[in-house]
């Protein structure tokens, strides 16, 4: 720029070379000319629908967003905010199926059109579309069909065509028509004459007229039963309903006849005359009839049996047997058997009793005495005979000088000798059967020239009193030495020792 002097100095403002392009760098070369250098740095091209903006040849260039969604049913774009948009359209499209036509876009998707019309009008073919070529196919199908002939039925498909079935049955079930079939018009029913049935079981003599069955006269129903009401019901024929009331069954063996459950009957006449020797019957045409019989009867006497009828009367047979088999009763009959008690001897049938007699209508005796007086046998009676069986009980052989006697082989055997020791030193013990057993004789103690005299102690036997000098020597039976020991100045005491 133009320089100016200021305060004695020449100076100017720097030249501005900035071109406003962020992809160039500007400077002044000293000659006054601006110089420009292209940059390759990132930049911003100001378009939000581009990315990776870079300086190229002094200009900022970016790469556009790829918003193609490969869907023919959307319009693809950018909303200016660096975001792709896909707006649904209604263009013609293809769903990829050759067996659809007229495919169109709807709600961002390709919607299949209608299938091709492959119907050949035949029920004997299965019509379809080839998924590969899109061409119509017509395959033979099975099933029923119509050959358009009204005189055939059950037509069936065969090899893609309709084959005729069997001849149509034109029978209309009427006996008053002749039935046939016309291929042009179908079944034909020509009227004929003759008998028929109008379907009403209450008419008879029905006949054909102009192809129809005309009813004959009504049927008459009568079962000759006064206890039924006779009517005719179509489909059932004659029916009889029960009636009530008085009637007559024509029999003299009934009275008060009335209708019950469709039958006439009354109460049977009682022809019984109370005589067991007559047979009473009733004949319908004649009434009660009576004839004599020879049946068994009862003449009223309880003491006869085998009573019989003769000439209409009852006669007694033989006297009954009133035996009860008891020897202690009398067998009597009066108004029937009875058996009062009797007295006297009898036999109760028990051989183990004796003196059997009757008492109160029963026979009994005293037990037979089988005691043989032997303590070594058990005595009993069996079958009228005494039984004396040996035992092993204790017994006595009668000798008081034996003890522990016992039975053996039916007799008493002696035990061991009786022990007669009375533990008294002043007696001599023995057993004498004649004296009744044990005998205990006093011991004799002789006098001594040294001592005054002897005495006897039950425990010690003969003991020595002190001598005149006041001493004596003596040893007890158990070895105790009592020399010089006196009791109250008296005898030695081997039981208690020295006091």
Describe the structure.
With about 500 residues, this protein is mainly beta. Helices cover about 0% and strands about 40% of the residues. A two-stranded antiparallel ribbon has the order 1-2. A two-stranded antiparallel ribbon has the order 3-4. The chain is flat, with a radius of gyration of 80 Å.
Characteristic key phrases:
0% helix; flat; mainly beta; two-stranded antiparallel sheet; two-stranded antiparallel ribbon; disordered C terminus
Topology record:
Layout (H helix, E strand, L loop, with lengths): L3 E3 L2 E3 L12 E5 L5 E5 L11 E7 L2 E6 L9 E5 L5 E5 L15 E3 L2 E3 L13 E5 L6 E5 L11 E2 L2 E3 L2 E3 L2 E2 L9 E6 L3 E6 L15 E3 L2 E3 L13 E6 L3 E6 L11 E7 L2 E6 L9 E6 L3 E6 L11 E2 L2 E3 L2 E3 L2 E2 L12 E2 L3 E2 L14 E7 L2 E6 L9 E6 L2 E6 L11 E2 L2 E3 L2 E3 L2 E2 L9 E6 L4 E6 L11 E4 L3 E4 L35
């Amino acid at each position: 720029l133009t320089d100016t002097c200021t305060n004695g100095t020449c100076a100017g403002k720097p030249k501005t070379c900035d071109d406003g392009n962020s992809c160039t760098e500007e400077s002044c070369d000293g000659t006054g000319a601006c110089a420009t250098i292209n940059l390759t740095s990132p930049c911003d091209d100001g378009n939000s629908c581009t990315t990776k903006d870079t300086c190229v040849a002094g200009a900022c260039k970016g790469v556009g967003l790829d918003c193609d969604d490969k869907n023919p049913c959307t319009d693809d774009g950018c909303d200016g905010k660096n975001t792709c948009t896909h707006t649904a359209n209604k263009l013609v499209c293809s769903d990829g199926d050759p067996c659809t036509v007229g495919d169109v876009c709807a709600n961002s998707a390709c919607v299949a059109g209608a299938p091709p019309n492959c119907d050949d009008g035949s029920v004997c073919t299965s019509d379809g579309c080839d998924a590969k070529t899109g061409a119509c196919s017509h395959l033979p199908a099975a099933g029923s069909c119509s050959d358009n002939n009204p005189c055939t039925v059950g037509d069936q498909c065969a090899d893609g065509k309709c084959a005729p079935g069997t001849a149509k049955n034109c029978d209309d079930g009427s006996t008053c028509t002749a039935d046939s079939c016309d291929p042009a018009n179908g079944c034909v029913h020509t009227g004929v004459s003759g008998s028929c049935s109008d379907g009403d079981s209450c008419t008879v003599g029905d006949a054909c007229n102009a192809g129809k069955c005309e009813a004959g006269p009504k049927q008459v129903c009568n079962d000759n039963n006064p206890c039924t009401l006779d009517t005719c019901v179509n489909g059932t024929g004659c029916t009889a309903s029960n009636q009530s009331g008085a009637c007559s069954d024509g029999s003299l063996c009934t009275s008060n006849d009335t209708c019950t459950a469709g039958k006439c009957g009354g109460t049977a006449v009682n022809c019984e005359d109370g005589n067991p020797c007559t047979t009473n019957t009733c004949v319908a045409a004649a009434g009660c009839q009576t004839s004599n019989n020879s049946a068994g009867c009862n003449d009223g006497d309880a003491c006869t049996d085998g009573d019989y009828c003769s000439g209409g009367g009852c006669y007694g047979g033989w006297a009954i047997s009133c035996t009860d088999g008891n020897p202690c009763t009398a067998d009597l009959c009066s108004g029937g058997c009875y058996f009062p008690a009797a007295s006297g001897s009898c036999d109760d049938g028990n051989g183990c009793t004796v003196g059997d007699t009757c008492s109160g209508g029963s026979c009994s005796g005293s037990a037979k005495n089988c005691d043989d007086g032997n303590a070594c046998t058990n005595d009993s009676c069996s079958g009228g005979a005494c039984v004396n069986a040996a035992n092993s009980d204790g017994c006595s052989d009668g000798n008081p000088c034996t003890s522990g006697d016992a039975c053996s082989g039916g007799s008493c055997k002696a035990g061991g000798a009786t022990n007669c020791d009375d533990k008294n030193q002043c007696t001599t013990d023995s057993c004498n059967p004649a004296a009744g057993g044990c005998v205990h004789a006093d011991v004799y103690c002789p006098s001594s020239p040294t001592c005054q005299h002897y005495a006897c102690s039950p425990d010690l036997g003969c003991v020595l009193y002190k001598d005149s000098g006041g001493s004596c020597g003596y040893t007890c039976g158990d070895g105790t030495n009592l020399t010089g020991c006196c009791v109250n100045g008296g005898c030695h005491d081997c039981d208690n020792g020295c006091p």
